[in-house]
Specification:
It is built from 26 helices and 20 strands. It has a 6-stranded parallel beta sheet, with helices on both faces. Strands 1-2-3-7-6 form a 5-stranded parallel beta sheet, with helices on both faces. The protein is elongated, with a radius of gyration of 27 Å. The structure holds thiamine diphosphate. Residues 13-14, 49, 51, 100-102, 137-140, 143, 166, 168, 170-172, 229, 243 line the site of thiamine diphosphate (TPP).
Length: 643
């Protein structure tokens, strides 16, 4: 309450209400060692109700996490502080994930609990055997993602996941009865969870419930902790006014009085602090035992506990991609890029043991499952492929949880149009800087008959608008293999692979060492004469631009062809390279999506050939004709621009 008061901004109610229950959890159950925050076998603690960030920061300070001093609590919500408004992954040790968008943390917790089982199946009890605890509020449970996440967790029997629900009956607008009358216990129970309800201010009751939950091995657990929001504040406790604003000096003084707390703001008596610091080191010996067990692993296996792409694995990836590119060039297949992606995965899965695939019920369409991958089933986590079911949003957030857990590199598929169904999770992959790979197929009107509900039009533009997200749209099999290589090689940036349903020709003719997609864009075809126009394409439309270049050549117009599979990587190149690639002449871009953003590459004198409306239901070739995304239209645009 003091930190919120000092910042005059923040959420005191939830931390005050849940402090009792969380103290029981942290002091009696949570396996962690503040001196080793990166201990791979620590229990994970996720504050899904991220607005209650002060609760987490206070715990990190009290238990003695490195670099979390009282001055950091005093800098709550200030520029550059570790104690941002909502917990941000990477800002301080002990913050396991970024939370704030309600429900995401809960689903991250499902991912972490699944990651724990996957790693346990691979590395064994000696080195991976921990719990995941999530603190969730009414808001988290009202969000739709909670349904997807708890349903998947119950199905997969994630017995090491324990959710403490801050059951305070209050959200921002007032009592939750204004908007919700779910029986949460029965809802979770119906999804296969073990459930219990306790008085969250009764420490023994909370302790018993956690002990019972830990003993249930084949079901995740929900413990509804009945609490009072803003507990201790004499006039404001139990009201929505404590949710998101400072209590005020007067109420704070009265709260001190009511709780019998005689100390000033940010003052923790030595004895109390010493006891908390002892809690912080309580599992120090367990850590040492773990360290000894881990030391017996082969160095490679030890490294893979946290980072699936070790230098050895990276070497194997480079080799596999190189071989694959050579065979693609030799065969020059006409292949949908979703199929080249599958072929790439067939080559990668055997050399990247930590690669964990999946799809939201579109495995065959997305080409995400290879012949070698066994399925992860309830109770058996040795496989490498997850059937996420029709749960795109949870899939994204679970992949974030998997990546955060460490040891695995998740990828998951659905149709590109349904990035809308998981966009909040994609955004958080990017904000946290996680290597999560979204395999998004059926990436344009080229999917044909399924029609405009399924045809992404604005999606490439809207995904490119997300910072720290690499949006790849490979044009052929060779580029597809290169984009996969890049996606795996960027541990701090998530990737979207936008892939076609329809076949595309192989345009790349040499598979020499260099990964040409690494620069985001490159010249695929330079005319013999000085360039008069540059044609720029991505994905399936690179072939359209290529044909246009041929038509122009027949008319003695010198057109260069540029492939631009990843804007973000291209934007990161120096100006000289970009100018050399794009050329000083008029530029024509072609992409079966909206124009938004293309002007940065085409310039004021450029043209764009693409979509300006939703698509339609028809065979793909008819749609390309109907929407005039054709070699003829591109060639005409080129001539107009030159003129
Ligand atoms: C996805 C999302 N929608 C809306 C918000 C804004 N918001 C923050 S907290 C909150 C109410 C949460 O209520 P509850 O979980 O009961 O928290 P409590 O009031 O108990 O602290 C809302 C609507 C948000 N953070 N995330």
């Amino acid at each position: 309450m003091d930190a919120v008061q000092r910042a005059n901004s923040g959420h005191p109610g939830m931390p005050m209400g849940m402090a009792d229950a969380v103290t029981v959890l942290v002091s009696r159950f949570l396996k962690f060692d503040a001196a080793h925050p990166e201990w791979p076998d620590r229990d994970r603690l996720v504050l899904s109700a991220g607005h209650g960030s002060m609760l987490l920061y206070a715990l990190l300070y009290l238990t003695g996490y490195p670099g979390m001093g009282v001055e950091d609590l005093q800098a709550f919500r200030q520029l550059g502080s570790k104690t941002a408004g909502h917990p941000e992954y990477g800002h301080a040790p002990g913050i396991e994930t970024t939370t704030g968008p309600l429900g995401q943390g809960l689903a991250n917790g499902v991912g972490m609990a699944l990651g724990e089982r996957l790693m346990n199946a691979r590395a064994g009890d000696q080195v991976c055997d921990h719990f995941t605890y999530v603190i969730a509020g009414d808001g988290c449970l009202m969000e739709g993602i909670s349904h997807e996440a708890i349903s998947l967790a119950g199905h997969l029997k994630l017995g090491r996941l324990i959710v403490l629900f801050d059951d305070n009956g209050i959200s921002i607008d007032g009592e939750t009865s204004l908007s919700v009358s779910d029986d949460q216990l029965r809802r979770f129970e119906a999804s296969g969870w073990h459930v219990a309800g306790v008085d969250g201010h009764d420490s023994e009751a909370v302790a018993l419930a956690i002990a019972n939950a830990k003993a249930v091995s084949d079901k995740p657990s929900l413990i509804a902790c009945r609490t009072v929001i803003g507990y201790g504040a004499p006039t404001k406790a139990g009201t929505a006014s404590t949710h998101g604003e400072a209590l005020g000096e007067e109420e704070i003084a009265a709260t001190r009085e009511a709780l019998g707390w005689a100390h000033g703001p940010f003052e923790v008596p030595d004895l109390v602090l010493a006891e908390w610091r002892a809690i912080g080191r309580k599992h120090g010996e367990t850590y040492e035992t773990w360290e000894k067990a881990a030391a017996k692993l082969e160095p490679e296996a030890l490294a893979e506990l946290t980072e699936p792409i070790t230098p050895d694995v990276q070497k194997a990836i480079t080799q596999a991609v190189q071989d694959l590119k050579a065979s693609f060039v030799a065969e020059a297949p006409k292949l949908a890029t979703r199929q080249s992606s599958k072929k790439t995965l067939e080559a990668l899965v055997p050399v990247v043991p930590g690669l964990i695939g999946g799809s939201a019920d579109l495995s065959g369409s997305n080409g995400t499952k290879t012949g070698d991958q066994a399925i992860v089933t309830p109770g058996d986590y040795a496989g490498g492929y997850i059937h996420y079911g029709v749960r795109e949003h949870a899939m994204g957030a679970v992949m974030n949880g998997l990546a955060l857990h460490g040891g695995v590199a998740p990828y998951g598929g659905t149709f590109l149009v349904f990035t809308d169904y998981c966009r909040p999770a994609i955004r958080l992959s990017a904000l946290m800087g996680l290597r999560v790979i979204y395999v998004m197929t059926h990436d344009s009107i080229g999917l044909g008959e399924d029609g405009p509900t399924h045809q992404p039009v604005e999606h490439l533009a809207s995904l490119r608008a997300i910072p720290n997200l690499n949006v790849y749209r490979p044009a052929d099999a060779v580029e597809c293999a290169e984009c996969w290589e890049l996606a795996l090689a960027t541990p701090e940036t998530p990737s979207i692979l936008a892939l076609t349903r329809q076949g595309v020709p192989t345009l790349r003719t040499d598979a020499a060492g260099e990964n040409l997609c690494a620069k985001g864009g490159y010249v695929l075809r330079e005319p013999d004469q000085p360039r008069q126009v540059t044609l720029i394409g991505t994905g399936s439309e690179l072939a359209v631009a290529n044909e246009a270049a041929e038509q122009l050549a027949q008319q003695n117009i010198a057109a260069a062809l540029v492939s631009l599979p990843c804007w973000e990587l291209f934007a990161a190149q120096d100006q000289a390279y970009r100018t050399q690639v794009l050329g000083p002449c008029p530029r024509i871009a072609v992409e079966a999506g909206v124009a938004q953003g293309w002007e940065q590459w085409t310039g004021a004198n450029g043209r764009f050939v693409g979509m300006a409306s939703f698509g339609a239901s028809a065979p793909a070739p008819a749609l390309y004709e109907h929407f005039a995304i054709t070699p003829k239209a591109v060639a005409q645009a080129a001539k107009d621009a030159i003129a």
